[in-house]
Automatic annotation (TrEMBL):
<dbReference type="GO" id="GO:0043123">
    <property type="term" value="P:positive regulation of canonical NF-kappaB signal transduction"/>
</dbReference>
<comment type="function">
    <text>Adapter protein involved in the Toll-like receptor and IL-1 receptor signaling pathway in the innate immune response.</text>
</comment>
<dbReference type="GO" id="GO:0005737">
    <property type="term" value="C:cytoplasm"/>
</dbReference>
<keyword id="KW-0395">Inflammatory response</keyword>
<dbReference type="Pfam" id="PF13676">
    <property type="entry name" value="TIR_2"/>
</dbReference>
<keyword id="KW-0963">Cytoplasm</keyword>
<keyword id="KW-0391">Immunity</keyword>
<feature type="domain" description="TIR">
    <location>
        <begin position="160"/>
        <end position="294"/>
    </location>
</feature>
<dbReference type="InterPro" id="IPR035897">
    <property type="entry name" value="Toll_tir_struct_dom_sf"/>
</dbReference>
<dbReference type="Pfam" id="PF00531">
    <property type="entry name" value="Death"/>
</dbReference>
<dbReference type="GO" id="GO:0050830">
    <property type="term" value="P:defense response to Gram-positive bacterium"/>
</dbReference>
<dbReference type="InterPro" id="IPR011029">
    <property type="entry name" value="DEATH-like_dom_sf"/>
</dbReference>
<keyword id="KW-0399">Innate immunity</keyword>
<dbReference type="InterPro" id="IPR034249">
    <property type="entry name" value="MyD88_Death"/>
</dbReference>
<feature type="modified residue" description="Phosphoserine">
    <location>
        <position position="245"/>
    </location>
</feature>
<dbReference type="GO" id="GO:0002755">
    <property type="term" value="P:MyD88-dependent toll-like receptor signaling pathway"/>
</dbReference>
<dbReference type="GO" id="GO:0005886">
    <property type="term" value="C:plasma membrane"/>
</dbReference>
Length: 297
Protein backbone atom coordinates (compact mmCIF):
# COMPACT_ATOMS: atom_id res chain seq x y z
CA UNK A 1 0.00 0.00 0.00
CA UNK A 2 1.47 3.34 -0.99
CA UNK A 3 1.73 6.48 1.10
CA UNK A 4 -1.51 7.90 -0.21
CA UNK A 5 -3.43 4.83 0.87
CA UNK A 6 -2.10 4.89 4.39
CA UNK A 7 -2.98 8.54 4.90
CA UNK A 8 0.68 9.45 5.44
CA UNK A 9 1.56 10.89 2.03
CA UNK A 10 1.48 14.52 0.93
CA UNK A 11 -1.77 15.53 -0.79
CA UNK A 12 -1.58 16.92 -4.27
CA UNK A 13 -2.39 20.55 -5.10
CA UNK A 14 -5.98 21.30 -4.19
CA UNK A 15 -6.46 17.87 -2.55
CA UNK A 16 -7.68 17.63 1.05
CA UNK A 17 -5.11 16.45 3.58
CA UNK A 18 -5.42 12.73 4.39
CA UNK A 19 -6.63 11.90 7.90
CA UNK A 20 -4.12 11.35 10.71
CA UNK A 21 -4.87 7.68 11.31
CA UNK A 22 -2.93 7.64 14.60
CA UNK A 23 -5.58 9.98 15.99
CA UNK A 24 -8.53 7.89 14.77
CA UNK A 25 -9.86 5.26 17.23
CA UNK A 26 -10.64 1.75 16.06
CA UNK A 27 -14.36 2.41 16.45
CA UNK A 28 -14.19 4.29 13.12
CA UNK A 29 -13.95 1.02 11.16
CA UNK A 30 -17.35 -0.13 9.97
CA UNK A 31 -18.74 -3.66 9.93
CA UNK A 32 -17.85 -4.48 6.33
CA UNK A 33 -14.18 -3.57 6.84
CA UNK A 34 -14.01 -5.60 10.06
CA UNK A 35 -15.61 -8.55 8.31
CA UNK A 36 -13.08 -8.30 5.48
CA UNK A 37 -10.23 -8.17 7.99
CA UNK A 38 -11.60 -11.38 9.50
CA UNK A 39 -11.57 -13.09 6.10
CA UNK A 40 -7.86 -12.32 5.86
CA UNK A 41 -6.80 -12.95 9.46
CA UNK A 42 -8.96 -15.85 10.66
CA UNK A 43 -7.54 -18.63 8.43
CA UNK A 44 -4.53 -20.32 10.05
CA UNK A 45 -1.85 -20.39 7.34
CA UNK A 46 1.87 -21.14 7.81
CA UNK A 47 2.91 -18.60 5.16
CA UNK A 48 1.08 -15.53 6.50
CA UNK A 49 0.65 -13.96 9.93
CA UNK A 50 -2.90 -14.52 11.20
CA UNK A 51 -4.97 -13.01 14.01
CA UNK A 52 -2.95 -14.87 16.69
CA UNK A 53 0.22 -13.07 15.56
CA UNK A 54 -1.64 -9.77 15.81
CA UNK A 55 -2.88 -10.68 19.30
CA UNK A 56 0.67 -11.48 20.42
CA UNK A 57 1.87 -8.11 19.10
CA UNK A 58 -0.87 -6.48 21.18
CA UNK A 59 0.38 -8.21 24.33
CA UNK A 60 -2.25 -10.93 24.68
CA UNK A 61 -1.14 -13.95 26.68
CA UNK A 62 -1.59 -17.61 25.78
CA UNK A 63 -4.80 -18.20 27.77
CA UNK A 64 -6.37 -15.02 26.41
CA UNK A 65 -5.60 -16.11 22.86
CA UNK A 66 -7.08 -19.56 23.55
CA UNK A 67 -10.25 -17.87 24.80
CA UNK A 68 -10.50 -15.81 21.61
CA UNK A 69 -9.83 -18.95 19.55
CA UNK A 70 -13.15 -20.39 20.70
CA UNK A 71 -15.07 -17.47 19.17
CA UNK A 72 -16.73 -17.87 15.74
CA UNK A 73 -14.87 -14.79 14.43
CA UNK A 74 -11.72 -14.41 16.58
CA UNK A 75 -10.29 -11.53 14.52
CA UNK A 76 -13.45 -9.45 14.94
CA UNK A 77 -13.57 -10.30 18.65
CA UNK A 78 -9.94 -9.23 19.02
CA UNK A 79 -10.72 -5.85 17.43
CA UNK A 80 -13.69 -5.42 19.78
CA UNK A 81 -11.65 -6.37 22.83
CA UNK A 82 -8.56 -4.26 22.11
CA UNK A 83 -10.03 -0.77 22.90
CA UNK A 84 -11.20 -1.91 26.33
CA UNK A 85 -7.79 -3.40 27.09
CA UNK A 86 -5.83 -0.38 25.88
CA UNK A 87 -8.00 2.77 26.06
CA UNK A 88 -6.63 5.46 23.78
CA UNK A 89 -4.00 3.17 22.24
CA UNK A 90 -6.34 1.24 19.94
CA UNK A 91 -6.13 3.41 16.84
CA UNK A 92 -6.45 2.72 13.14
CA UNK A 93 -2.89 3.92 12.60
CA UNK A 94 -1.57 1.47 15.19
CA UNK A 95 -3.49 -1.40 13.54
CA UNK A 96 -2.06 -0.56 10.11
CA UNK A 97 1.46 -0.29 11.53
CA UNK A 98 1.13 -3.76 13.10
CA UNK A 99 -0.21 -5.29 9.89
CA UNK A 100 2.71 -3.74 8.02
CA UNK A 101 5.19 -5.10 10.59
CA UNK A 102 3.61 -8.55 10.24
CA UNK A 103 4.08 -8.42 6.47
CA UNK A 104 0.35 -8.36 5.65
CA UNK A 105 0.77 -5.99 2.71
CA UNK A 106 -2.06 -7.85 0.94
CA UNK A 107 -4.50 -6.54 3.55
CA UNK A 108 -3.13 -3.01 3.29
CA UNK A 109 -3.38 -3.04 -0.50
CA UNK A 110 -6.95 -4.35 -0.52
CA UNK A 111 -8.47 -2.42 2.38
CA UNK A 112 -6.35 0.74 2.57
CA UNK A 113 -8.77 2.90 0.60
CA UNK A 114 -11.84 1.66 2.45
CA UNK A 115 -10.16 2.14 5.83
CA UNK A 116 -9.18 5.71 4.97
CA UNK A 117 -12.75 6.42 3.82
CA UNK A 118 -14.13 5.12 7.13
CA UNK A 119 -11.70 7.37 9.00
CA UNK A 120 -12.71 10.42 6.97
CA UNK A 121 -16.40 9.78 7.73
CA UNK A 122 -15.65 9.35 11.44
CA UNK A 123 -13.68 12.62 11.59
CA UNK A 124 -16.43 14.45 9.71
CA UNK A 125 -18.95 13.35 12.34
CA UNK A 126 -16.65 14.74 15.04
CA UNK A 127 -15.96 18.09 13.34
CA UNK A 128 -17.23 21.12 15.28
CA UNK A 129 -20.40 22.58 13.77
CA UNK A 130 -20.31 25.73 11.70
CA UNK A 131 -20.57 29.02 13.57
CA UNK A 132 -23.57 31.25 13.07
CA UNK A 133 -22.49 34.54 11.46
CA UNK A 134 -22.63 37.32 14.04
CA UNK A 135 -21.36 40.84 14.43
CA UNK A 136 -19.93 40.01 17.84
CA UNK A 137 -17.59 37.10 17.08
CA UNK A 138 -16.66 36.73 20.75
CA UNK A 139 -20.02 35.02 21.36
CA UNK A 140 -19.75 31.43 20.09
CA UNK A 141 -22.93 30.38 18.34
CA UNK A 142 -23.38 27.07 16.57
CA UNK A 143 -25.99 25.88 14.13
CA UNK A 144 -26.21 22.22 15.08
CA UNK A 145 -25.12 21.83 18.70
CA UNK A 146 -27.17 24.69 20.22
CA UNK A 147 -30.58 23.86 21.59
CA UNK A 148 -30.20 20.09 21.57
CA UNK A 149 -31.52 19.49 25.10
CA UNK A 150 -34.68 20.70 26.82
CA UNK A 151 -32.87 23.25 29.00
CA UNK A 152 -30.29 24.44 26.49
CA UNK A 153 -29.76 28.08 25.67
CA UNK A 154 -30.88 28.12 21.99
CA UNK A 155 -28.03 30.54 21.17
CA UNK A 156 -25.34 28.27 22.58
CA UNK A 157 -24.08 30.66 25.25
CA UNK A 158 -24.78 28.35 28.20
CA UNK A 159 -25.09 24.70 27.08
CA UNK A 160 -26.79 22.32 29.50
CA UNK A 161 -24.28 20.12 31.34
CA UNK A 162 -24.80 16.77 33.09
CA UNK A 163 -23.12 14.52 35.63
CA UNK A 164 -23.61 11.42 33.49
CA UNK A 165 -24.84 10.26 30.10
CA UNK A 166 -27.01 7.13 30.40
CA UNK A 167 -26.42 4.58 27.64
CA UNK A 168 -29.40 2.19 27.54
CA UNK A 169 -31.70 0.33 25.18
CA UNK A 170 -35.45 0.92 25.06
CA UNK A 171 -36.32 -2.36 26.76
CA UNK A 172 -34.41 -1.23 29.87
CA UNK A 173 -36.24 2.09 30.24
CA UNK A 174 -37.92 0.97 33.48
CA UNK A 175 -34.53 0.49 35.11
CA UNK A 176 -33.49 3.94 33.86
CA UNK A 177 -36.61 5.43 35.44
CA UNK A 178 -35.65 3.83 38.74
CA UNK A 179 -32.15 5.27 38.31
CA UNK A 180 -33.67 8.73 37.91
CA UNK A 181 -35.62 8.32 41.15
CA UNK A 182 -32.63 7.01 43.12
CA UNK A 183 -29.96 9.42 41.84
CA UNK A 184 -31.79 12.63 40.93
CA UNK A 185 -34.67 12.74 43.40
CA UNK A 186 -32.67 11.85 46.53
CA UNK A 187 -29.91 13.48 48.55
CA UNK A 188 -27.42 12.77 45.74
CA UNK A 189 -29.15 15.30 43.43
CA UNK A 190 -27.24 14.13 40.36
CA UNK A 191 -28.14 15.36 36.90
CA UNK A 192 -28.48 12.56 34.37
CA UNK A 193 -28.70 12.85 30.60
CA UNK A 194 -31.46 10.47 29.49
CA UNK A 195 -31.89 10.65 25.73
CA UNK A 196 -35.65 10.07 25.60
CA UNK A 197 -36.28 12.70 28.27
CA UNK A 198 -33.62 15.37 27.74
CA UNK A 199 -32.79 15.49 24.01
CA UNK A 200 -34.92 17.48 21.58
CA UNK A 201 -35.92 15.78 18.30
CA UNK A 202 -34.88 16.95 14.86
CA UNK A 203 -31.07 16.70 14.74
CA UNK A 204 -28.58 14.02 13.70
CA UNK A 205 -28.60 11.40 16.47
CA UNK A 206 -24.91 10.50 16.02
CA UNK A 207 -23.72 14.11 16.20
CA UNK A 208 -25.84 14.83 19.27
CA UNK A 209 -24.67 11.68 21.02
CA UNK A 210 -21.00 12.49 20.38
CA UNK A 211 -21.46 16.06 21.62
CA UNK A 212 -23.21 14.96 24.82
CA UNK A 213 -20.76 12.19 25.71
CA UNK A 214 -17.58 14.12 24.92
CA UNK A 215 -18.44 17.69 25.98
CA UNK A 216 -21.60 17.82 28.06
CA UNK A 217 -21.35 14.84 30.46
CA UNK A 218 -18.59 14.16 33.00
CA UNK A 219 -19.26 10.40 33.10
CA UNK A 220 -21.19 7.73 31.25
CA UNK A 221 -23.26 4.90 32.73
CA UNK A 222 -23.70 1.87 30.45
CA UNK A 223 -26.81 -0.16 31.32
CA UNK A 224 -25.91 -3.75 30.39
CA UNK A 225 -28.41 -6.48 29.54
CA UNK A 226 -28.97 -9.02 26.77
CA UNK A 227 -31.00 -6.36 24.95
CA UNK A 228 -28.07 -3.93 25.15
CA UNK A 229 -26.00 -6.39 23.10
CA UNK A 230 -28.48 -6.09 20.20
CA UNK A 231 -28.53 -2.27 20.15
CA UNK A 232 -26.49 -0.52 17.46
CA UNK A 233 -26.96 2.80 19.27
CA UNK A 234 -25.56 1.43 22.53
CA UNK A 235 -22.68 -0.17 20.67
CA UNK A 236 -21.74 3.16 19.07
CA UNK A 237 -22.08 5.11 22.33
CA UNK A 238 -19.92 2.65 24.28
CA UNK A 239 -17.17 2.44 21.69
CA UNK A 240 -17.16 6.21 21.25
CA UNK A 241 -16.78 6.73 25.01
CA UNK A 242 -13.94 4.20 25.15
CA UNK A 243 -12.19 6.02 22.31
CA UNK A 244 -11.91 9.16 24.45
CA UNK A 245 -8.59 8.18 25.99
CA UNK A 246 -8.28 10.81 28.76
CA UNK A 247 -11.79 10.02 30.02
CA UNK A 248 -11.25 6.26 29.82
CA UNK A 249 -8.19 6.56 32.05
CA UNK A 250 -10.05 8.64 34.61
CA UNK A 251 -12.94 6.29 35.42
CA UNK A 252 -15.28 8.00 32.97
CA UNK A 253 -17.24 4.92 31.92
CA UNK A 254 -19.23 2.90 34.50
CA UNK A 255 -20.90 -0.39 33.41
CA UNK A 256 -24.08 -1.33 35.29
CA UNK A 257 -25.53 -4.83 34.97
CA UNK A 258 -29.28 -4.39 35.37
CA UNK A 259 -30.55 -7.92 34.56
CA UNK A 260 -29.37 -11.51 34.65
CA UNK A 261 -27.85 -12.33 31.27
CA UNK A 262 -27.89 -15.41 29.06
CA UNK A 263 -25.16 -14.01 26.80
CA UNK A 264 -21.56 -13.28 27.67
CA UNK A 265 -20.73 -9.90 29.20
CA UNK A 266 -19.37 -7.45 26.57
CA UNK A 267 -15.67 -8.12 26.09
CA UNK A 268 -14.82 -4.44 25.54
CA UNK A 269 -15.98 -3.70 29.11
CA UNK A 270 -14.51 -6.66 30.95
CA UNK A 271 -11.50 -4.66 32.14
CA UNK A 272 -13.72 -2.10 33.92
CA UNK A 273 -15.23 -2.68 37.38
CA UNK A 274 -18.97 -3.41 37.09
CA UNK A 275 -21.79 -2.22 39.36
CA UNK A 276 -24.06 -5.28 39.59
CA UNK A 277 -27.76 -4.66 40.32
CA UNK A 278 -28.56 -8.37 40.02
CA UNK A 279 -26.51 -9.52 43.02
CA UNK A 280 -28.91 -9.81 46.01
CA UNK A 281 -26.01 -9.80 48.49
CA UNK A 282 -24.77 -6.36 47.43
CA UNK A 283 -27.98 -4.77 46.15
CA UNK A 284 -28.46 -2.61 49.25
CA UNK A 285 -25.17 -0.85 48.47
CA UNK A 286 -25.80 -0.56 44.74
CA UNK A 287 -27.17 2.99 44.48
CA UNK A 288 -24.71 4.41 47.00
CA UNK A 289 -21.75 2.92 45.11
CA UNK A 290 -23.04 4.17 41.78
CA UNK A 291 -23.77 7.65 43.13
CA UNK A 292 -20.35 7.94 44.74
CA UNK A 293 -18.70 6.94 41.46
CA UNK A 294 -20.63 9.61 39.58
CA UNK A 295 -19.82 12.26 42.17
CA UNK A 296 -16.08 11.76 41.77
CA UNK A 297 -14.38 14.60 39.85
Amino acid sequence: MDAATTGSGSPGPGSPAPPDLEAVPLVALNFSVRRRLGLYLNPRAPVAADWTALAEELGYEYLEIKHLEAQPDPAARLLEDWPGRCPGGATVGRLLALLRALGRHDILADLGGRIEEDCKKYLQRKEPPLQVPAVDSSVRKTLEMSGITTRDDPYGNTPELFDAFICYCQKDIHFVQEMIRELEQTEFKLKLCVFDRDVLPGSCVWSITSELIERRCRKMVVVISDDYLDSNECDFQTKFALSLSPGARHKRLIPVKCKSMKNEFPSILRFITVCDYTNPCTKKWFWIRLAKSLLLP
